[in-house]
Amino acid sequence: MKADNLEEQGKDPILFGSHVRRELVLADLMREALQENLHGTNRQELALLQMPRALGPLEAEIMEVVWQKREASVRDVFHVLSKRRELAYTTVLTVLRNLNRKGLLGRREGEHGYIYSPWSSRGAYIEARVGEIIDLLLDNFPAQALSHLLKRMERERGRWLCGGE
Q1: Can you give the CATH number for the domain in which 27 is found?
Q2: Position 33 pLDDT exceeds 80
Q3: Are the C-beta atoms of residues 17 and 61 closer than 8 Å to each other?
Q4: Can you tell me whether residue 13 is helix, strand or coil?
């Protein structure tokens, strides 16, 4: 019998995992702080305001379910998530509609409502998201971004060469 629960399958139910998600949330907080104090910002700081927001926790969980199932109705997603947390069916419906409006999910008419499917794979989404962030940093803070990336590559080289992620 196939497990509906992502945790039962040994998969992280939150997109990106907590350590990367923390980085994306910090970028969001930085953007919000800059928006509150626009009079003292320079060109590089203003560019950070254009950085796309990370998915919220519920959006990320819903995307994980849809990526896993490849196609899912509101009822399908609600069934999986309601095993882990208390939430309303209408909340799941609203988030799925928003993800469709944002271009992350497609939808088609089903027998009992819409059937949602992802426009891209999980890997393609993460790669695009990481690419956007790195491009933004390299465009606006090239010396600092390259310095950090080179230091990180040197630190991680042994682990990467040994087949680690």
Answers
A1: 1.10.10.10
A2: no
A3: no
A4: coil
For residue 12, tell me if it sits in a domain.
no
Contacts of 69 (CB under 8 A, 6+ apart): 76
Structural domains in the chain (count): 1
How far is residue 51 CA from its own chain's centroid? Answer: 13
Q: Which residue do the tokens 């990336």 mark?
A: 149
In angstroms, rounded to a whole number, what is the distance separating the alpha carbons of residues 120 and 111? 24
Domain contains 5: no
For residue 113, CA distances in Å to 20, 71, 98, 100, 156 come to 34, 13, 16, 14, 47
pLDDT tens-digit profile of 95-121?
Answer: 999 999 988 999 999 999 999 999 999
What pTM was computed for the model? 0.64
9 contacts: CB under 8 Å, gap ≥ 6:
3
